[in-house]
Amino acid sequence: MNSPLVTNVSNTLTDSFGRTVTSLRISITNRCNYDCIYCHHEGDTSSRGEMSVETISNIVHAASKMGVNKVKFSGGEPLIRKDFEDILSSLPKLRDVSATTNGTLLKGRAQDLKDAGLDRVNISLDSLDPKNYKFITNSSQNMLDGVLDGVHSAVDAGLTPVKLNMVLLKGINDNEIYDMLDFTRTYDGQVILQLIELMDFNDVSQYQIDANSVEKDLTARADEVRIRTMHRRKKYIIDGAEVELVRPVDNSEFCANCNRLRVTADGKLKPCLLVNDNLIDVNGMSLEKMPQMLKLAASQRVPYCRN
Ligand code: SAM
What we know:
globular, alpha/beta, 307 residues, binds S-adenosylmethionine, single chain, TIM Barrel, twelve-stranded mixed β-sheet
């Protein structure tokens, strides 16, 4: 896979705001078996096209020579792709390869994914209450038990730490934070809770929580608070369990510390989740041409929210 041309490109992907891209978030399909009430679809609903394994591999191989050491796969639901293991096996060595999944298809596949090169997973789990879960995911059947099996399988396969992504929704699941934290405690540090502030994509502002008050409450209960470089996220240690709060909304610190470049399912480099007029099509592009396109995309990154 390595071509001399790519090997010679030593430049990093730094934008004009001094932010260097070190991580890719790659959507590999827009297909999903859920229709969550708030879903942002990774900022892309336009296309049903999907990149081949080769295109994905070319993007990651080129990016890895330019300072990218982390890749997260998303969707749609990434596990809907039957060739997800082939995608994983085609990647170069990286520091961190993860996926965000709704967990419905994890049971029975977690070990294969681990063997193919997946390091860890984020599993979206907004509620432990079957009625709430069904409402949020907008699904005809209730698949909560299957998702809980998926969490077990992921831990068993060593896809750890498993992060549970819980989007906070006022009046729906905002009273479940500490139940969810109790649930993570049963896994002895192998499962971490990640609380996510709702971004209003689908006219769901009525569910917006007050993130300041959640933060205040977590701080009051925490034995320790740490700050991650990625997006300046805060991590709280409460009675031995770890909970992180992701605050993407109107947060200039979040954008100032963003080191991520996105790729849409149909193969477009996407500098920001919230911007759609600067996408760069690399679908089917050769490895040799990829560095140039990655540089162009990085140069177009502008913090969405600035002071
Ligand atoms: N189907 C996969 C899953 O459920 O993880 C991957 C796609 S989903 C779009 C990726 C993550 O984005 C999920 O954790 C989801 O909760 C989060 N997400 C989606 N829409 C969001 C929104 N409007 N605000 C905040 N987070 C959102």
